Structure formats: C-alpha cells, structure tokens
Amino acid sequence: MRWSEQAIDTENASALPGLARLNNLITSVTTPEFAGVTFHEVVAKSALNRVPGGDSALPFGWTINPYRGCSHACVYCFARPTHEYLDLDGGDDFDRQIVVKVNVAEVLARELHRPTWQHHPVALGTNTDPYQRAEGRYRLMPGIIAALADSGTPFSILTKGTLLRRDLPLLAEAAQHVPVDLAVSIAVYDDELQQSVEPGTPTTSARLATVSAARELGLSCSVFMMPVLPYLTDGLDHLHAALAAVRDSGASSVMYSALHLKPGVKEWWFAWLEREHPELVSKYRSLYAQGTYAPTGYRSWLAGRLRPLLREYGLEKGQADPATGSMRSAALDDSTRSLRLMGLNGTGTGVTPGSPDLTIDTGRTPAPRAMIAHELPGGFRSQPRLF
Ligand code: SF4
Q1: CA 360, 124, 28, 166: dihedral to nearest 10 degrees?
Q2: What is the pLDDT of residues 123-182, one digit of tens each?
Q3: Is 170 part of a structural domain of the chain?
Q4: Is 77 in the pocket of ligand 1 (CB under 6 A)?
Q5: What's the gap in Å between 94 CA and the centre of ligand 1?
Q6: Which mutation among 68, 95, 129, 195 tests ligand 1's pocket best, with the greatest number of atoms within 8 A of CB?
C-alpha cells in the first residue's frame, strides 16, 4: 500500500475527539479478533525519536515507538499518562485505544539512509510494547528490524510479548550484521497475581520460554524483573522462585527496580489495589506518600535482600555471556561512550548501576539499556509527540 496516496488531511468523523485533531489519522478499526480494542491507524511523519538530553554533537539516544497505548494493560505502566495528550484517559483507553503508525518501517528506512544518520543505537520498547497484540495484525517489526540491520544501526528491544518469537530468526540474522540486544520484562512469578496486575500479557512461563528461544539462537536476552512490587513480589519465596526460573531460562542478565508510581499512574494503581488487595492500601499510601519513588530505606532493603540471592543464583555482576564470551556489546560501548562524554552514567536514569534505585546484574550487559526501559522511571521518556 502506498501511504502517500491515502487521504490524510481529513478528520475521521468516527474518531475520538483528541485523535480527530490529528491530521494524519487514516481510519479507526475494530475487529472481532481484538474484541474491545480499537486501532487508530495513522501515518507517521517520522519514526526515530530523539531521547531528550542529547545535542546534535553528541546524540544521547534514539527510540522508535510503533504503537501508542498498550493492550498488555499493566496496571503500573509508566506510559499511561502519555495517552492524555490525545484526550484519552490513562486507564481503559490506554489499554484499548491503540494508535498504530502503519508506515513506520517505510519512514524509518528513509531516515536511516540520510547521510547525516550516525548509526547510534536505537531502542524499541521505551514507551509502549512493540510486541503487544496489535503487532500480530500489523507486522510492523519485521520491516523495522530489516531497516535497522540494513543501515548498520545497532538496536535493542524490550518487550513482554511472546510474539517476539515470530521474529527471532530475523533478529538472529540481523545480529550477524549489527549488535542486537533483547530483554523480556518478567516481574511477577505468581500466575494469579500476574494475570491480575498485567491482564493483557502472556503468561510468565510463556515469556520465560521466549527468553530461552532467543538464547538458543545465540541472541543476548536479559530479564527485567521490574517492577518489584512491595509486599506482593518482594518476599523471599517469590524472589527465589523468580531467580531460579530466570536462571533456568538461560537469560544473559537480570535487572530489577522497585515500583515507581508517578502521577497519572498512581491513581490507576490504587484503584486496582483497593479492589484486589485492600489490606495493602494504607501500607502503599505510606510508602509512596512522598511521591513517585519508594523511600530510600525500602530500596536499600530490597537491594540488601536481592544481592545475595543474585549471587546464589549465579546472576551477579560480572558473569560472562557463554554465547559470546563478551561482557558488553559493541552497542553498549557506543552508547556509554556518548553518555560518559555527556557526564552521565550508563543507565540514562540518573541512577548508578548497582544502586538501590536500579540494579543491573549482568552477564553481558544489554545494549543501550539507557533506552530500553519503558518500565523504568520516565525521566528519559520523550514527551509524546502528535506524530
Ligand atoms: S508496562 Fe509495557 S507491556 Fe505493560 S502496558 Fe506498559 S508498555 Fe505495555
């Protein structure tokens, strides 16, 4: 389909008010396969987003977000407030009104072939999940992966979607040409809790199997144990079960951090907590009374609990990657060099690796992890643009 031939300058009468203001909306689609979900197909003017904080001499990082909104519907999702820019709410609308940049791969290929493109690492999964269910319908990722690999651009992908498996052969091929780092986000190792707090996601076991499948192809694949939920997933039994499962999956590294609740997320989180775990409401109100982050005391306690466990399960820092024999990818080296030049640390979060705020326990450290973090604090998330 030639998107340039689409009539994109007219408002779609059936669209929701905020979306109707966009002049690049093609159509809004519902389909029986995705009951309750509406896809708003737009033509993107650009595909690469610059992470705030860079300048033209020292690019900080680049991201691609093919979708806006996410049917994985994690209650704690940090991207929820971004839907408000479209006059949609950060609750149900975020889960069910999905904006799809249908021409993203085509636009990306053009951008990557500009003479000015310097092949800095690009991250997918910084805002919403590129392998959410919509990807099964729109198949945007193969074109994105091909465009990145063809242009010699290193990249990383963070996802909860087992649809990643569909593209593993393509990713393995891409990894022959450019550094590729994958990360699967798996925070909850209790099936009942996982289905309640991440109702649109594949099961934990399916995600672990995806990690294993990636590793079997020789791809670097980390697990993000994020967020650790106070009083719900920070117990010793849960952490032992989690780390044993991650170790058995063959994951090349583990990252964890405690739950953050920023405005625009907090209200949805507490609505869920009141419904599902009313006994914890007052404890959470006290933990998050000061703002977005769990108190330093809690984060230190969590680090103190997890560090010996990570050692016990062989997931502590400094473990070599058996697939590559390498400790770091070329992509990470490139991104961290830029970060050092800018006087920043290598996480992009303003947090030193190993600190209670964000711990990176790594075999081979995932590539530009400064940018693979849609579940990390929103400090480096681009302000959403209206395409
Ligand atoms: S946390 Fe990630 S997977 Fe979950 S809803 Fe948000 S973007 Fe989707």
Answers
A1: -100
A2: 999 889 999 999 999 999 999 999 999 999 999 999 999 999 999 999 999 999 999 999
A3: yes
A4: yes
A5: 10
A6: 129
